[in-house]
Design a protein that fits this description.
Elements (H helix, E strand, L loop, with lengths): L1 H20 L14 H11 L17 H4 L12 H15 L3 H11 L23 H4 L12 H18 L37 H4 L9 H9 L67 E4 L2 E4 L4 E2 L2 H20 L2 H6 L3 H13 L2
Antiparallel strand pairs: 1-2, 2-3
Helix pairs in contact: 2-4, 2-5, 4-5, 7-9, 9-10, 10-12
Keywords: Signal
Protein name: Cell wall mannoprotein
Organism: Agrocybe pediades
Length: about 350
């Protein structure tokens, strides 16, 4: 009996010794509840039809070891977040719930917990999303991981495009952002995170810890699909190559007796072509709103994307016109005519009011 107990004690001592000798993993503290409002929304959408028996959206934001407990029929744990978002999006779409679709998109872009500060999460390659909007999105990466700022910015800009495509506010893409980078040498693993199950909005918002990946102007430029920053009309920064040259100015300028240029007025535009759903006919600087027609996934904006939602397509058409107008206003010809970006802003408001 004595020898058996002695062996047991020696074994326990060795185990403790090995455990103490093992290096401490610098894991970032949990943050799966930091964007709680989107977990709540996705949970409601997912519960309408959950064929894979996913237990809760929160599991997909955990590391794989913890995620397995709530993955249901999903065996590829690197894809649990995509699968959860995809089903929630499908259910919200079937219900005509635009907010539910937007929240599912934002949830898909949230950062997953990883084993330590600076460790990126694994991309999903084993499951293909049913919805192309979800398929276009990846999860944010740990802000201390290699090239995270550029990666996360690209994710946010793509998210903005997909949000706009379903009729949401593309600026909401900024809400998918994560925290400031943690210290790679922090042995506590605390990082710059928060995790509060009692905060229905999300502690990253209420504690002002969110670091936005892009500016509002960059979001607008990415969604508008036009060259340059929509706020100042500088061409060629981020848009399509075919928008880098300013269009011809056809503004009519009234000249007073003293020779000063007055407020430019647009030449009378032609009526919309048959089948064009864009009824706004303003054309400051000669830039008209591109045609919107039925087709694609629902509605097609000439020279741009197709949309599920008519209002989203018309909004994109207005924004493209605004960017082109701003480009004209910042060109030499536009400045000599007296056209300003502020007038382009006013026209954009009128275009959107007509939707």
């Amino acid at each position: 009996m004595f020898s058996k107990n002695l062996v047991t004690l020696l074994t326990l001592a060795c185990t403790i010794s090995v455990s103490l000798a093992a290096p401490i993993t610098r894991r970032e503290v949990p943050q799966e509840h930091s964007h709680e409002q989107f977990l709540t929304s996705v949970r409601a959408s997912l519960n309408k039809n959950n064929p894979n028996n996913i237990q809760d959206p929160v599991f997909a934001l955990l590391g794989n070891a913890a995620a397995a407990a709530g993955a249901g029929k999903i065996t590829d744990l690197d894809c649990l977040q995509l699968a959860t978002a995809d089903q929630a999006f499908t259910n919200a779409k079937a219900a005509g719930d635009v907010k539910g679709q937007v929240d599912a998109l934002i949830y898909r872009a949230l950062e997953r917990n990883t084993g330590k500060v600076g460790l990126a999460s694994v991309a999903c390659t084993g499951i293909k999303a049913v919805n192309p909007e979800i398929a276009a999105i990846q999860q944010h990466q740990d802000p201390a991981s290699p090239n995270a700022a550029a990666i996360n910015k690209a994710i946010t800009l793509e998210l903005a495009k997909q949000i706009a495509a379903v009729g949401g506010n593309p600026q909401d893409a900024l809400k998918a952002g994560t925290f400031a980078p943690g210290n790679l040498n922090d042995s506590t693993g605390k990082g710059n995170t928060c995790d509060d199950t009692d905060d229905p909005v999300g502690c990253i918002f209420t504690k002002n810890l969110l670091v936005e990946d892009a500016t509002a102007a960059e979001i607008e430029a990415a969604v508008g699909g036009a060259g340059g920053n929509a706020g100042n009309g500088n061409a060629g920064n981020e848009g399509n190559a075919d928008d880098t040259s300013p269009p011809a100015v056809t503004a009519t300028v009234t000249v007073t007796a003293g020779g000063a240029a007055a407020t430019p007025t647009a030449a009378a535009p032609a009526a919309p072509a048959a089948g064009n759903l864009q009824t706004f006919t303003g054309a400051l600087g000669g830039a008209t709103a591109p045609a919107v027609t039925a087709g694609g996934r629902g509605f097609v904006v000439e020279g741009s994307d197709d949309f599920l939602n008519k209002a989203a397509a018309l909004g994109r058409s207005c924004d493209i016109q605004h960017n082109k107008c701003a480009n004209v206003a910042n060109s030499a010809a536009g400045k000599s005519s007296g056209l300003t970006v502020g007038q382009c802003d006013q026209q954009n408001n009128q275009c959107r009011a007509a939707i």
